[in-house]
Amino acid sequence: MGSTSGNSGEVRVIQLEENNIEGTVYRVEKGTILQFRLASSLHGCQVTLQTNHPVTTGVQFCRSKYYKVNWILDRQNEETYTDLTASISGNFQYRFTKDGVDAGSGYFIVDPVLRVGSANTVLKLDSIACQTHLSKSLGDFATWKIRLEVAYRSGYNMVHFTPIQELGGSNSSYSIANQNALNPIFGSVTFDQVGKLVEEMRTEWEMLSICDLVLNHTANETPWLKTNPESCYNLENSPHLRPAYILECIFDQFSNDISHGNYVSRGLPAAIKTEEHLSIAKTILHETVPQFKLEEMYMVNVDETVKEFKQKLQSLTPRTNGQEEDESKLVIVQDKLHRRLKSTVDLDAASSVYFYKWHDEDINVAIDRALGRLRNKLDQLNDGAKHVFSSHLSSAIDNILAGARYERLQNDGPLLTEVSDENPLIHRYFLKVGMPDREDLAAEEFLAYEENCRFVLAHNGWVMNDDPLRNFAESDSNVYLRRELIPWSDSCKLRFGEKPSDCPFLWNTMRKYVETTASIFAGVRLDNCHSTPIHVAEYFLDVARNVKPDLYVVAELFTNSDWKDNIFVNRLGITSLIREAMSAWDSHEEGRLVFRYGGIPVGAFHQEKVRPMTPCIAHALFMDVTHDNPSPIEKRSVYDALPTAALVSMASCATGSNRGLDELIPHHIHVVHEKRFYTNFVSTKGKTGNGLVNDSTGIISARRSLNNLHSKLGAAGFTEVYVDQMETDIVAVTRHNPRTHERIVLVAYTVFGYPDQHFRRSGGIKDLIFEGELNEVVLEAQLRPIDSTQGTYPRPGDFVEHPIFLNGLVDFTCDVRENISIDKSQFVSLEGNAVKFINFQPGSIVIFRILPPSAIVTALQSLRSLLAPESVKKVTDSLSLRDLNKVLYRCEEEEREDTGYGAYDIPGFGKFVYCGLQGINSVMMSGIRTGNDLGHPVCDNLRGGNWLMDYIYGRLLKDENTKPLGNFLQQCFKNVAEFPRYLVPTYFDDVLRIVCFACFESAFSKMSKFVQISSSFTQSLALGSVQCCGISKSGPLPHLSPCLAEPKPLTLQSDNGLVQDCVTLAAGLTHFSTGYMRNWGRDTFISVPGLLLVTGRFQDARYHILSYASVLRHGLVPNLLDRGTNSRFNCRDATWFWLESIKKYVTTVPQGETLLKDRVSRMWPNDFGESVLDHSVEQCLEDVMQEALQKHFEGISFRERNAGLKIDAHMSDEGFNVTAGVNLETGLYT
After folding, report:
1. For the Glycogen debranching enzyme glucanotransferase domain, which residue ranges apply (predicted)?
2. Which of these is catalytic: 277, 427, 530, 1104?
3. Cα–Cα distance, 473 to 489 (Å, whole number)
4. Would residue 530 show up in a list of annotated catalytic residues for this protein?
5. CA triplet 457, 461, 465: central angle to 5 degrees?
6. Total-model pTM
7. Are strands 828-831 and 834-837 parallel, antiparallel or unpaired?
């Protein structure tokens, strides 16, 4: 548990995309700032953003009320975003329009803040340990607390109560007869008294309580079914169910006939025992049911319809084009009341198709032809309707017999035999309120259409593999007709309609029920969530949150689709989805579930406070067993109760169990049939019984240790999980604290099936190798038989159920040792950094606490000191922009020229685009960091060795200017190398991310004020100046005039002699980055305004302008520069971009007009002469500009020197001829 709540300072950026992402889950904590930004496709458009999360504090949430979120124009009006603080818990939608048209939407969920104890301490969601109780089994309210004390003593901090309301005749925990009255079994008690007890549990035991909401059905015995049958699906408000009801009556009569021996002569006895019996039943059904002609409920009365059509035609004028139109638009219009032969067709459409005549044809001939055509079409449509119904009937018969097979033939079923009223062949889908269960078939069909049909109600149930987003009881479904429902015959399906006004009584009744429940409990479990109409669940969860704003909502879904699960999570704001370890078929799968639902991987990257919102899976309430399913003792073995409990407890999510497993109750505590009560807790030691349990009962003491550990790990930030399948049945789970690097390691020996009775493992388990200090054995435990003479793994003997109390197995005891040194362990020993399993038997668990090695602690402290903001700033602030070009960027060709290094190459991935830090940073930003992609080849490379780290600092040590940063990174990486290899990627990324950010800030600080105060988007563009401007010894600018006014560049030694120490603009990376291909006039002067002038790099712009001026020839600055001595002047517009850059320099730079007087050493003072390299010809820039303009006015015409393959293998001969000039009539450049 922690002491604070909220997520102050955390920012999640949601980029608005033009799509609907209803199947993507975004979860945040309270206090998180949601920052919405526009995707590139939305820039320049009128975008309006709305959300139903209140934009001001103190406003109550209303799902249908949306608020416009105002955009913020970020720094110089360059970037648009908006901030929204997630201040209330629940689920919220955002939506936006683009130029007035709906463009996209999504959801975000804000987790509730749960509090326990008198100090209202926060209980983190990942610390929850929940135990389910069947409320009816708590018995008299006076005994509740002593019975619930078992959960408290077992270390649970949350209790899940099944409905506490009055139940129906079946006694099912989920068949509620009165939503607003308590179960009479509790005695004389009020909702207020229950609420008081729940509050006592919260404050005294630090234990929260949640309770089920059952919104989808009500018990058959519900009193208001007699007064308000419209609250359920019935044959009046849902007449599409009438054929299904009549068909059920036929099937029920068939079942009754079997029970009376009416088909013995056909070989079908009352006792169905063989597949042959089912085959005979199928044959008889296919013979008898068609005789009732139920397909007529979907068909047209041909004679009546043709007669009506004839009357219609006699008042119409036929078409005269003499051509029949497409008759496919003629379809059966289903009779809404589903009466026999009362469906119709559109006669207007029929007349437009069939009623025409030739020029001189008699009108009666046209009418007869139309009638004949329609009759044929109706026969065709009826045949189609009959065929469809036959398909439904076949499915219905198959489904009935499949159910009979399970119940009467399969070994995993109840193995019923005699067909009788108590055990009929079919289960009823419909309840008749206040009427006989069975009447003759004629009376049943009559009932389906008369007034009392509103009292024929549809049962609720479960449909295998159905679409959970569809209501299977509505008219677009044939579930009841096809007998695809697994019915709950004790409950009727509620029919809410679309809104409260559709059924006011039902909505009001359920609203009061929900408000009462929410006022008592900290949360709700939405029962039958996948079948509850989603709009209904939305409405009532909103009602509940209005009562309890920080409502904890859990649900169990059976959609078989993560995407559909996410839709429910988003629409309903489900906090935790129930997941079950019993779904695992072996220990490997169980370990996979622990990892999937249980946290982030060990060594995950440290995330920044401001980061993109990333999709996540729904938070889990991971249970070893739920109350709906058989006990693991039945399905696996009694010895697996402890290992599976331990594995589940190690998941970094909410966890839970069902009351009874800890007490070793070896059977399913059935939600319907169970009538006994839970036991009471007593503090006395020794053997218990007769309704009492204590610490030594079952695995209670071990469970307490596991639950306490689980809660502490969640509160202390052990968020990272690693699962290792050590052997087929042995699983190790590590919980890792990413801040302290302390680890808690569980090793569990699962027992999914019973070993040999006398089995004993004699070693052979691989060692557990660890790094660090094994501080203690937190827990070791094993469930064993009390009577060792029965062997090491005897199966439980004959179990006798107590007539009053829910009792468990008593022939087993759980040995528990806590917080011991490893030399006191009975399971393991220690040799160096290896744990030896000396006596680790099936069903055993052992948990270690491992502290990081002192070297790691020292390295971590050192690294944190080095990465302190002031330390990083000090080393990066000394870097110039040209140094930062080397530090951050440099393509492979540039790097080879300078240091001899190439780009770093990752096996299985390839080379980084840049040799500098941004090369790897771009890859890390592409999803590795935010998506925790620890399996990426880059991470494999970092875990494999220090090569990448050596490369990064090694290249920087070769340059005196970058050497200080190289030394700094060498120190950082030296510390990183001390960590276990699985932690190297995350700490390498910390260094990379922090240093890159500092380098970016250093770059911006050396640029113009405009860049410094601009948005991140503009600053990212400004980095193009650092990316493309660098020193290139093989592609320098021509030497500037020695008479140039200060400042002027220094010189550097290169392989070709001295070159100027000034940056050049690469025309493009990587092909135009070095040598003669680096500098191009057009590319340079298109870029100078944005990359050099806007960013404040005025001297770099000056040097480029003057250098190109020095090689002016024929009135043109070169296209390809190539040091000026081998320039090509084949680009007519480069000169004009050069002139435009001069103009912008003069108007942008303070005292920029001085540029015009700067001296230029002319290399080509004579267009057709030899080059002059001794700076003997000098001019002012303004004179060079005048020459360029004069040459254009006079007209330019020449052929490139050395024209041909020597200078361009791809140019046509004509292309070497260069002409340019000014049209003297228009003044336009040609």
Report:
1. 123-552
2. 530
3. 15
4. yes
5. 135
6. 0.89
7. antiparallel
